[in-house]
Amino acid sequence: MWYSKLNSKRLWKIFSDLTKIPRESGNEAGIRDYLLSWAEANGIEASSDDMGNVYMRKGGTKGLEKLPPVALQAHVDMVCVKKEGSTHDFSKDPIKVKTDGKYIFADGTSLGADDGIGVAIILDILSDPKAAHGPIEGIFTVQEETGLGGAYSLVPEKIEARRLINIDSEEEGILYIGCAGGIDIDASMKLKYEKAAGSAISVKVSGLLSGHSGGEIHLGRANAIKVLARFLDRLPSFQIVSISGGTRKNVIPFSAEAVITVADKEAAISQARTLQEELSAEYAETDPGIRIEIGDAEMPSAAIKEKKSRKIAGLLLCSPHGVREMSRTMPGIVETSDNLAIVSMDSERISIAYSVRSNVNAKKMDMMSELITLIEAFGFKAKVNGDYPSWAPDPKSKLTKEVAAAYKAIEGRKPTITAIHAGLECGIINSKIPGMESVSLGPNLMSVHSVNEKADIASAERTAEFVKKMLPMLR
Questions:
Q1: Separation between Cα atoms, residue 353 and residue 385, nearest integer Å
Q2: pLDDT over 90 (residue 302)
C-alpha cells in the first residue's frame, strides 16, 4: 500500500479507506454507511439524520469522565475535479493516491484531503486505545462544498458538546477563530439564434493553477472564464455556438472553452497569439501555464445572435473576480471577494454562477447588489441563493485561550490566531447551537479543489497528535 512506509499507519489506513468511497457532494450515502459500520465495529455510539450527517459519541477515559464534552467536526464530501481527458468516474472509481514520501497526492484528480484528512484524524483519535480524553463527539457533515447543507441540517439534540474543534483548515500552526460569510448569485438569459455566418473555430483556455476561491483567491491566479472573455472582446464580430467553463462555485475556473463563428479566422488566430503573449507576461509569477488554443470546428447551421453573443461576452468581461477589499481589522486577511465561477448553456438558456464572500455582512450585501445591477444591465436575470453567515472572531473565548495554551505547551511555540476568508461550518454550527464555541485548525494542504491538491504527510501526522494530546488539556 502507498502508506506502508509512513509513520501513522492507522491514520493513513483510514484515509486510504475514505479514498475508495465515492463522496462527491450530494453522493455521500456510501461514506455515511462506512462511518456507521466503522463505529459499530469499534464499539462507538453512532447515529445519522435525514440529511446524512453522522454523529458519534465516546465517553471519557479513566479519570477524565467528568470533563465537559468536546466535539470534533469535519465534512465528509469532497470537490471532484480531474485532468482534461481523464476517464475517472467519481461516482464509482477510487481515488488513486500517490506519495513521494513528503506529500500525498492523486493521479490526475483532486485528492479529497479537504476534508478527508479531518475525518481520518477524528476516527484515528476515536479508535486509539492509548488516547486520553474527556467525553468526545464526532460530527461528520455532508454537502459542505455545495452550500454547507449538512451544517444547516444538523440536529442540535444530537450534540451535547458546547466546544467544537473544526478540523477543516489548511495551514498548520494557525488557529482560525472567524471566517467569511458568503452568498451565491446566478445569472441567466434566454438565447436567440440566427443563421451562422463566417467560419467556425474552437477556443480553449487551459493550464491554469486554479484553487480554492476562498483560501487562494488572494494569490493572483487567472480565471479561465475571464481569459476567454478577454479574447472574445477583441474580435470585431462573432457568434457564440457553445460556451462553458468552471466546475464548482468555490473553485477558481481552470479551463473554459467555446465554439464561435468569425468573419476572419486568421485575424482571430492572431488575436489569440497576442493575448497569449500578454498573459504569459502578466501571469509569469502567479499562473505561468496558461494556454489559449484555437482549432477548427464543424460549421453549424445556427448560432446565438451576434448581439446576444456580444452581451454574453460583455458580462463575462465586466464581471468582477478576485479580491475586492482587504480587512482593515485583521491585516493580511481578505475581507471581500468574488469568484466568477461557472458559465454553462443548453439550447435555450445560458447561465453564469458567482460566489461572493465577505467577513463583513454589509460588504457582502453591497457586492451582491452591484453584481445584480451589472447582470441586469446586460439583459440577464439574477437569482440569489446560498446565503450563509460569517463567524465573528472572539479572541477572548475560553476555548481559544485553552487551545492556544495547549499548542504552545505541546509544540513549543505560539500559534497564529486569525480569521480566514474561506467559509467554514463553524459560523452555522455556532448559530444553531446556543453557547457553542469553536476553533478551526488543520494540517498543511496545498491547491485543494484542484488536480494539484496535495497534503503534507508530516504536518498531518503532527496535527493528529496535537489534537490527541490537547483533548485532556481542555477543561
A1: 11
A2: yes
Q: Which of 28, 77, 114, 425 is catalytic?
A: 77
Q: Does domain 9-179+391-473 have CATH number 3.40.630.10?
A: yes
Spacing of C-alpha 187 from chain mean position? 21
Question: What's the pTM value of the predicted model, to 2 decimals?
Answer: 0.78
**Looking at the chain, which residues constitute the CATH 3.40.630.10 domain(s)?**
9-179+391-473
* Fold of domain 183-388: Alpha-Beta Plaits (3.30.70)
Averaged over 5-33, what is the pLDDT?
Answer: 97
Residue 389: the pLDDT is 84
Answer yes or no: is pLDDT of 116 > 80: yes
d(CA 339, CA 249): 7
State the distance between the two ends of the chain, measured CA to CA, in whole angstroms: 39
pLDDT of residue 396: 87
pLDDT digits (tens, 9 = 90+) for 254-278: 999 999 999 999 999 999 999 999 9
Assigned C-alpha cell, 234? 477583441
Q: How far is CA 316 from the centre of its chain?
A: 22
Of the residues 28, 144, 335, 465, only one is catalytic, namely 144
- Residue 382, class by beta-carbon neighbours within 10 Å (0-12 exposed, 13-18 middle, 19+ buried)? middle
Dist CA 159 CA 139 (whole Å): 8
CA distance 305 to 392: 48
Burial class of residue 130 in the structure, from the number of CB atoms within 10 Å of its CB (0-12 exposed, 13-18 middle, 19+ buried): exposed
Strands 103-106 and 54-58: unpaired
| DSSP helix/strand/coil, 96 | coil
- Write out the three cell numbers for 422: 474561506
Please give the mean pLDDT across all residues of the chain. Answer: 95
Is 77 a catalytic site residue? yes
168: annotated active-site residue: no
C-alpha cell belonging to residue 106? 492523486
